[in-house]
Every structure is written in structure tokens, then in C-alpha cells.
Write a structure and sequence with these properties.
three-stranded antiparallel β-sheet, 10 helices, 37% helix
Length: 366
Amino acid sequence: MFRRINIRSYEIGLHFKRGEFKGLLRAGRHWLFDPLCQSQVRIASRRDPWLVDEKLDMIAASGALKDCAQVLDLKDHQRALVWIDGRFSNLLPAGLFAYWTGLRDVRVEVVDAREVKFIHDDLKVIARSPAALRLLDICTVNRNCAGVLFIDGRYIETLTPGQYAFWRDAADSKVVEVDLRDSVVDVSGQEIMTSDKVTLRMNALVTYRIADAHKAVCAADDALQALYREAQLALRAIIGARELDAFLADKDAVASEIEQAVRGRAGELGLEIVSVGIRDVILPGDMKDLMNRVTEAKKAAEANLIARREETAAMRSQANTAKVLADNPTLMRLRELEVLERIATDGKLNVVLGEKGLADRVVNLL
């Protein structure tokens, strides 16, 4: 008929009778008169920071916890951060909670989840908690990137590199990460006909960077593909208006025109053009052979012109020498003696006599 209940110093007994909460049993020995076995005592340890019971609402409504526990009633828009003994312990959703006071240092911080973006000085510590993963969407914007934040489909702000958290179920939050480093669009394999009806294949490179992350995400479904199409059209328009020789003579000017043509549209897409270059120009086989023959003919003509120019210079020099020798007989005589000296040094002298006048002159020289 009597039941003995022992409650330790760190425990509290929850007394129920016929399912109704009757009160708390403090530390010590208690005797319950329960002939019909209608009483129930559930012992809760105060070493655990939280009082967990299926009838917590009844216990809290009775006011019995006023001196030994703190009741926390979180509304739908509220969340609670729990720190136990100076260490982060839990993240609580909306609901009814009670934590013991006295044995453990429990600190509760209530925050408003209607502010979808969760900002806290200890976010890195909180994000490592398993409970945080159930209530928070956590994302990281990497180095050299920017994050475009949308909440319920509306643009909110552009995020710098770092870690961010957003309350789940409070709103539909989405972060689109974009790379701010220089990137390259390869406009390759473009078959274009010049104004003089020559078909060539070209490869061009467009180097760009993202200047406005918001525009880059919202202005087009795919900013990279839009830039590729714009560069492709500009390349065809500019090359198609030139003759082949004019294009090959000044490819840098063509690249500059393409850059100017693309820059305006790139700005509308939130992009900044760094440079445009023409990488390859591939001619058809027959055109390549023809140009090789033209180049060969040009080089042969230049070589012939140089040879004729040198011959003319040599003949002009000889004529000048002959004129000097004719005007100076003594100089002529010295020249003749130099020739005889070179002949004599060879060690062998062959004299071929022709007509009488030539023979007499040679004899006189000797």
C-alpha cells in the first residue's frame, strides 16, 4: 500500500496520479500511499541540462518548475541557441523546452528566424553542430568568387567570400556562386567568307572577367553562351567585310574591332572584356598553294631586283675606275705594274700573243 521513493541530490521526481501531474519530489526519501497503484513517479536527472518528458506542457503549466528550471516556449518564428558550460550545445526549433538551473551553466539565446540570413559571431562553431544542419542551410563562397543571394526569388545582395547560413523553412534562399577571375571563351572552328569570296577557318579567343555578379546571373540564362554568340557574330561581320589580303596584313586591327563590337553587349551581361585575339587562320589547300606560289614569285622578283641593282653598282664602279685611269696615265702605269707583280708571284708566266699590236705592247711591258 505504501511505496518508497529515493531521490538523489541531483535528481527530481515527477509525480503523476491517474495521468495527472501532481508535483515534484525533491531529493530525499519519500513514501507514497498508493493502494490502487494509480501513482507514477518518473525520476529526472538534473545533470542533464534539459527536462524531457512527454507531458512537459502539463508540468510547465502547473508552475512547479519555477524554482528549479527555466521554461522556454519558442514560437514558429523563433529559434534558440543553447550554450552549456560555455560550449555550444544545441540549436532548438519552435516548441516547448525546459532546462534545469543550478547544476549546469546553461545559456539560451533566442533569435528571430524571420531574418532569413543568420548572422552570428560564432557561426563557424554553430555550423559544425549536427542540430544546425537540420535547421540551417549553410553555404561557403570560395576565394576569388562572389555569391549572388536570392530569397523567395528576389535579389537581396552580393556576398563576398566566406561562410553564410540561412534558416530553413523560413524562406526559399539560394546563393549562386560566380568566379571573378579572368576566363576565356574559345570561339573556334568558324568558317567565314571574305569580301573577295575566299573561305577561311578561324579560331579566336575572348578573355573576360565578371564585373557585376548580379547582372551576370540575371541578365541572361547563360552569360558565357551569350558572350560566345556575340563574339561569333562580330567575327563574321568584320571578317566578311574585308578582303583576304587586307585581313592578313593587319589582324591586330581586326581583333581590336571585334573587341569594340563585343564590349557593349558584354557590359549589359555584367562582363568586362580584357582582350580579344585571333589565334589561328586556316586557308583552304588550293588557296594555300596559290599564296605560296605568289610569295615565291615575289621573293624571286625581289632577289632578281637585288642582283640587278648590285650589277649596276659594280658596273658604275668599274666605269668610274676606268675614267680615273684614263685621266691619269701614271696611275694606269702603276696599275699595270701591280698586275705584273701578282702574275710574277705565282711562279709561272704564260704569255699568249695575238695580233701584232698586242704583242708589241706586252713586249714593251716586259
